Q: What sequence folds into this?
């Protein structure tokens, strides 16, 4: 007789059944869901988040703007041609789709921080009826959740340069900060076209040349100049001009630059960029890039060896490769190497030591700072020539002196058998050193004598 | 890169242990795995006895580069850890527009791993929503406890909300029964419930992870089960799960979702 299967009691949970879970199972016919998922969560601001009253207003305002735009497109003239008219629902869906597409294309041109600042300013201005609003650094910090006012300022500067927002009035002494206005995506895109602004899809930096000088971010900065130069430099025309705008000028490692660019020349509109940036192990780089990379590397090697006195080692090469130093302009690296040399108490032994400073200067290299660093380094080098002497040379010299003194101590001791007096011995060694032109070093002498008399 | 969130609103069901050991199993198979820990308890770092310099907080909020936050913890296993500051990340994210997709934004362009696991905290948090939106796929570990089933139902409620407000549908890829002790009737009851609820769906019911003290001991000595006791039954179970997961990923690489799923018998083990 077959064994009867034991009936097992199951646990009942409200809302959890085979029917409810079916909704979330993997499905073959999920192309539509997939498309939606791709649309919503691939670089587009979330238009379908849980709506607050403010957000509802935002959405309705956007819709109103679009309806107005659509209204202007309606032609009253009867053409005689029958056209299929989409239902209102289809039109609304089409609008949503268009808005989403605009957001996608706009969002692709902003960095994460810029997107946050833009979305906050846009939300606040649209909610308040498209009127410009005051935004101080602290208010933006609290609204965006960004913890650094420097990041906020940088984002604002870039957003203004990218025509995403505009500084309506700087209001230097206004307690609530400067007044900004954010534009809707459509206007931004057309404004960028008008000004010929092109933005790199990966780095989000402005690629094309357009002359905008002295962008006033309106956010007052508490720090006037990061460094006060005490060195009177003879150079009247500084090699680096102030970084007041985000204009990118191609620069080769010539040492003389008109502006401080953000992107190294090699990769501007260069198809090879993707190859290099997408994979650290990429080996398919065309010859042209190879040449440029080689020049860049040579220039960096010369800078590194000049300022540190070190030889370029395998570890430095690895650092150069792994950290993609090739993408960084030589000015930044030069400034970072000098700053690291000046800041460090001990001698720098590798390029990796400069990593933090490189990133620091990538964020912001104050105007004229490189000239200041060069002058400072030159000044120190002239005053203390041995300050940057290679450690290996010093160590070698120390060992030679030590060897000579040890030899002299032994000779003197041999001639003084049975009458070892410490003071006398020292005087004799000193005299012998003088005679043999060996520099007497008291520290070395004490060490040698100490080795010979362990019981003392 | 195939991305999977491992979540359950109930704590102690073996989420972190499963993430770590599944990653170890996949790494042994030769897959490159990324673990993102979104739990402020920082359990992954504790289990691996690591004190990371930059954590998920620095990555999400301070904008520290991915390369600086990710740590190569074992061969083929990389991780972004969490610590107490992760709680602050949620606070910082609250006023941000589009906060639910912060992780998506930050992880944009990072796809040089084969599989990415996102380990979640046992709570209905913003980071969990971020994780689900980033990965879309979810594995639900269910321990042999009625509360674990309730926890799974809470996850599903989150999904209903996601569907309602975002109009997108996350996918429960699989159910992973953990702490299964065949001697206990509660194990029978929970397993029967799992089969009753998910048995008729395409959701995979993975082979059960049998109760094994080696898992606790491996955690105690900061090792994966494959390092501590490679012959143990837990190691065997996790390897079996990893193989099924790989098979699923390989089969559905082109179809993206759904498709020729594994037979029920294979799933239940």
A:
């Amino acid at each position: 007789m077959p064994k009867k299967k034991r009936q097992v009691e199951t646990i009942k949970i409200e809302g959890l059944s085979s029917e409810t879970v079916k909704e979330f199972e993997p499905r073959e016919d999920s192309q539509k869901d997939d498309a939606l998922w791709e649309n919503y969560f691939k670089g587009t601001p979330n238009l379908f988040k849980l709506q607050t009253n403010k957000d509802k207003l935002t959405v309705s305002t956007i819709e109103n703007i679009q309806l107005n735009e659509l209204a202007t497109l309606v032609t009253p003239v009867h053409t005689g041609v029958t056209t299929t008219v989409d239902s209102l629902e289809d039109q609304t869906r089409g609008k949503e789709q268009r808005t989403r597409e605009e957001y996608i294309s706009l969002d692709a041109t902003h960095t994460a921080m810029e997107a946050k600042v833009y979305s906050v300013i846009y939300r606040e201005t649209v909610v308040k009826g498209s009127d410009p609003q005051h935004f101080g650094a602290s208010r933006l910090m609290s609204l965006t959740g960004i913890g650094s006012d420097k990041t906020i300022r940088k984002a604002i500067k870039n957003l203004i340069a990218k025509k995403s927002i505009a500084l309506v009035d700087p209001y230097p002494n206004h307690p609530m900060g400067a007044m900004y206005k954010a534009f809707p995506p459509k206007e931004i895109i057309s404004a960028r076209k008008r000004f010929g602004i092109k933005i790199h899809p990966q780095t989000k930096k402005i690629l094309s040349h357009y002359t905008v000088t002295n962008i006033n971010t309106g956010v007052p900065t508490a720090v006037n100049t990061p460094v006060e130069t005490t060195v009177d430099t003879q150079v009247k025309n500084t090699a680096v001009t102030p970084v007041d705008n985000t204009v990118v000028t191609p620069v080769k490692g010539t040492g003389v630059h008109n502006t401080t660019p953000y992107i190294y020349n090699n990769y501007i509109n260069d198809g090879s960029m993707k190859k290099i940036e997408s994979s650290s192990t990429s080996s398919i780089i065309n010859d042209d890039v190879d040449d440029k990379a080689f020049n860049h590397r040579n220039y960096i090697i010369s800078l590194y060896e000049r300022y540190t006195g070190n030889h370029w080692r395998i570890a430095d090469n690895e650092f150069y490769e792994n950290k993609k130093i090739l993408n960084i302009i030589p000015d930044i690296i030069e400034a970072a190497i000098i700053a690291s040399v000046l800041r460090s108490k001990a001698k720098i032994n590798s390029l990796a030591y400069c990593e933090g400073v490189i990133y620091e200067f990538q964020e912001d290299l104050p105007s004229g700072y490189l000239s200041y660093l060069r002058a400072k380094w030159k000044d120190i080098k002239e005053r203390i020539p041995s300050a940057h002497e290679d450690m290996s040379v010093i160590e070698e010299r120390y060992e030679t002196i030590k060897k000579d003194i040890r030899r002299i101590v032994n000779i003197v001791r041999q001639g003084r058998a049975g009458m070892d007096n410490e003071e006398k011995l020292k005087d004799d060694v000193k005299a012998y050193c003088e005679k043999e032109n060996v520099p007497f070093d008291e520290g070395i002498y004490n060490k040698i004598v100490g080795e010979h008399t362990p019981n003392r | 890169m195939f991305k999977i969130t491992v979540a359950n609103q109930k704590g102690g069901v073996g989420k972190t242990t499963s993430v770590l050991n599944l990653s170890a199993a996949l790494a042994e198979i030769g897959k490159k795995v990324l673990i993102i820990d979104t739990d402020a308890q920082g359990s992954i770092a504790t289990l691996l006895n690591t004190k990371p310099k930059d954590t998920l907080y620095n990555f999400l909020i301070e904008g520290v580069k991915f390369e600086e936050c990710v740590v190569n913890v074992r061969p083929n296993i990389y991780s972004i850890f969490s610590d107490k500051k992760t709680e602050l990340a949620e606070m910082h994210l609250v006023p941000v527009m589009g906060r639910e997709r912060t992780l998506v934004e930050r992880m944009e362009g990072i796809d040089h791993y084969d599989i990415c696991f996102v380990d979640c905290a046992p709570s209905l948090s913003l980071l969990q929503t971020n994780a689900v939106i980033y990965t879309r796929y979810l594995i639900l570990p269910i321990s042999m406890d009625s509360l674990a089933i309730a926890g799974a139902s809470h996850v599903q409620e989150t999904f209903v909300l996601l569907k309602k407000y975002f109009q997108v549908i996350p996918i429960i890829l699989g159910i992973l029964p953990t702490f299964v002790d065949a001697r206990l009737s509660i194990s029978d009851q929970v397993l029967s419930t799992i089969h009753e609820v998910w048995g008729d769906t395409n959701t995979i019911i993975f082979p059960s992870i049998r109760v094994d003290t080696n898992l606790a001991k491996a955690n105690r000595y900061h090792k994966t089960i494959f390092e501590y006791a490679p012959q143990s039954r837990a190691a065997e179970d996790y390897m079996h799960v990893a193989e099924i997961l790989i098979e699923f990923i390989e089969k559905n690489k082109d179809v993206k979702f759904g498709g020729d799923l594994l037979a029920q018998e294979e799933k239940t083990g």
User: Anything to note?
Assistant: Residues 391-415 of chain A form the longest helix (25 residues). Residues 391-452 of chain A form one domain.
